[in-house]
Each structure stands twice: as structure tokens, then as C-alpha cells.
Amino acid sequence: MNKSKNLLAFGVVAALGFAACGSDDEPADEPAETEDEAPAEEAPAEEEAMEEEPSEEVASGDFGVGLTYDIGGRGDQSFNDSAAEGIERAAAEIGITASELVPNADGSDRPELLQLQADSNDLVIGVGFLFADDTVAAAADNPDVNFAVIDDAMLDFDNGGVPRCDNCAGLTFAEEQGSFLVGAAAALKSESGNIGFIGGVAGFGLIEKFEAGFEAGAKAVNPDIVIQSQYITEAPDFDGFFAPDRAKEIALSFYDGGADIIYHAAGGSGAGLFEAAKEASEASGSKVWGIGVDSDQYNTVDAAVQEYVLTSMIKRVDTAVFEIVNTQAKGEFAAGNVVYDLSLDGVGYSTTGGFIDDIVDQLEDFKAQIVAGDIVVPTTPEA
């Protein structure tokens, strides 16, 4: 089957390389993302369902891929933009034709967008776990089309972790592992022994993985470190991923409370963190930092705040998108879930700016211990 025509007639976003307006990480990895029926923390069951590692062999072929973003689309400097990088790479290296769509502000048109993509493409990708339930329905209605969802395992854990549908795959990440490394970086670089975490939305299990890893990494370096933590909203209110003013307010309160480094896992809200770091640094004369998420945010933030981005936790949504397209091109699509962890370079940290060059050896040692299984990173924060 070759459904390669674009959806340009629908006037949303199509054919690679054109930027649309958006929000901001995140989602990163967002939001990222239906009710999280397939919690990513169930990694062992997920890996059993789909054990293939990403292939280095790049297939080729002309077929259609429909990429449907999380709310806000391109321009979020993180989760959606990372997905866009993956589809652009697929277009360049594999020769696919891509259609890009963006949900409305409340996401209520996700089912319609998935069907539009299925009408014209061989593979449909939903960027974010909030697509999961609608994807199951669309997959049943379009058995000749394959589907994939970022940040949902697409497994039925009530029935032993079997795939929720025969033509849908889940692409999830070990966010806790990457967050462990930036938590260790924060503790190694902190001069005050006081750091912070800002989560976009609590209560659905995903962002808690970021917090848990960050906390564990920091305490592996300094068991007595103080960690201030706050979420912007609680599910089902996902506005916390699109509230930079609120993130800035929280960050300023953390800096006032003694924090000198703050990590955010808050999507588009993260822009407010870096503004706060600049403001607090200039007001006090003592430099404070922010840590980005999903993408290398040193390369995506405004130039005026670049110098305050200590590092970023990289979540390789681009890799996941490219690999599922490559798998489709090779005729090897399989239902189930792939977990992108440190061993697959699915998560990691950035060194752009050179601010953590002096501690890279220590971070790489922690990474090796995690990959070897000597350190098992928790997926839920300490009570």
C-alpha cells in the first residue's frame, strides 16, 4: 500500500521543514502525551513485548507517514520539535512523504486528525500519550495502516502486557535514567547544596519519573542535598505544560529559597525557568542555573538566556520517530513497545556551552553503572 499524498489541502502543517507556532518542551519527550493506560515504568513487560533494538541499517522507500503533534505543534523548543527532527531525517534518508497535523487547543479533535492521517498514509504517529486511546480506536478502523504513539507503551497490562492492537506500537523512554544524570550534575555543580525541580503536570505517572531520577542522581552525589519540588498543575489539567509565567514564579521562589540550580520537566513552561535564572542572577550578582529537558535547550532558548542553561536531559524523540519509520520501510513493523534507555542512547545529557565539561567523567561513570545494572534508578519520587 502506498498512501503518499500529503494533507496540504487541510491547511495544517505539511511537508517537512516549515515551522509552525508552538508552545515549549514539551510536550517533550509533551504534553507529551490519554490516560496513561500503559505506564512506562513497567519496562520489563514492555521490553518482552518488543525486544528489537533500533536498527543502524537505513531502509529506503517512498511511502506516507502522518505525524500528529502534541498541542502546540512545532516551536515548543523540545518535545514536538524533537519529533519534527525525526521526521525530517526520515524524509531525507529514507525518502518518505510526511504529513504533519496539530490538535486544537484542547486536543478534542485528536480522533479526527488520526483518521485524516490514516486516510493518506501507511504509518501514523501520535506525539504524546494522550493519543493512546484514540489510536486504539483508529487502528481498529484502519487495519491496513500501522500506528505508533510516543510516550505510551500501547500494552494491555491488565492482560499480561499484550499489545493493545495488532497494528500499533508504543515508543517510550527511560526518563528517570537521563534525569539521574542531570540530577548528579546539579549536585556536583551546586555551591549552595540546594536545588529544585519544576514539574509540568502531576498525577499521571510520567513527569514523576523525571523527578524520581533527578532526586536519585542528586542524592547519589550528596545525600544531604536540599531539593525543592513543585508541580504547576495536576492531571487532568494539562495547562502546566504551557504556563511559562507560572514556571517563572515558582523558579524565582526556589532561587529566593536558596536553590542555585533548577531542573524543569514542564514542556513549554520551561521558558519561564530560564527567564527566572537570568533575572535572579542579575538581581543577586550570583549566578544561578536552569536545566532543560527533551532537547538540548541551550540551542533552542533565546540567546539572552543561553548562558543560564547548565545542561539538558535529552529525550531522543527524534530517534524514536526515525526508527519506527525505518522499521516500517523495512517491512518489519511489530506491535508492542520499545523502551529507549541509556543503553540505546534514548536518553542522555547535553554538554553544549561547556558548563559541565569538568564533571563529564563522573557522569559517564554513573551512566556506565546504570547501563550495567549496578544502579537501578527509581521511577517514583521518595515520599
TrEMBL record:
Q: Which Pfam families match?
A: Bmp
Keyword list (alphabetical) reads: Cell membrane, Lipoprotein, Membrane, Signal
Region called Disordered, residue ranges: 21-63
Which residue range or ranges hold the ABC transporter substrate-binding protein PnrA-like domain? 71-379
SUPFAM superfamilies in the record, alphabetically?
A: Periplasmic binding protein-like I
GO cellular component: a single term: plasma membrane
Organism's domain of life? Bacteria
Q: What is its main location?
A: membrane
Topology versus the membrane, per the UniProt entry? Lipid-anchor
Which InterPro entries would you find in this protein's record?
BMP_lipoprotein, Peripla_BP_I, PnrA-like
PANTHER family recorded for this chain? Answer: ABC TRANSPORTER GUANOSINE-BINDING PROTEIN NUPN (PTHR34296:SF2), TRANSCRIPTIONAL ACTIVATOR PROTEIN MED (PTHR34296)
The family classification in the record reads: Belongs to the BMP lipoprotein family.
What protein does this entry describe? Putative nucleoside ABC transporter nucleoside-binding protein
Q: Could you tell me which species this protein originates from?
A: Ilumatobacter coccineus (strain NBRC 103263 / KCTC 29153 / YM16-304)
